[in-house]
Write a structure and sequence with these properties.
This protein is of the alpha+beta class and about 180 residues long. The protein is built from three helices and six strands; from the N terminus they run ααβαβββββ. A hairpin with a 2-residue loop joins β4 and β5. The model has no long low-confidence stretch (mean pLDDT about 85).
Amino acid sequence: YNKYMKNIKYKAGFTLVELLVVIAIIGILSTVAVVNLNHARAKARDAKRISDINQITIALKVYYENHGQYPSNTDSDCAGWDADGDESFMQDLVDDGMFGSVPSDPLTSGDCIGFRYKYHRYNAGQYGCDVSRGPYFVLVIANMETVNHTTSHSPGWSCPDRDWTPSYAWVMGGFEN
């Protein structure tokens, strides 16, 4: 028994190298978890954007049925586009009772370049679209977080002289006639 016990050394704790290895492993695992969490949050915000746009599209169709035309844009900001905010086309939808409040992008920035929902109502025939179809609107999500180009869910929209689809993450439109 004593012969075996002489070769066994008792340790009173962990060595510095062992502690550093454990801390490094924990750091790597927590970094991976945070990156995955941030990506999941971005995907959730993109899903909310698409859900909002689908609801706005339905509200625009109801507005058209009630008023015989789509809302006029106020040209209040964003180079002639109305964008989500209190002074936008969506206020007309709120005033008509289709929304309790103006839907806005989860990361709306103060500028026209960032994440936004944008809307513009064009005159009949503008950009070469068929004059007999009347005025039309274009509704877009300016940017998404998880895609760098138009999403596969986007219906797209174009006229003979302009295609909005490559310029925005999500695009759709509709004629009045």
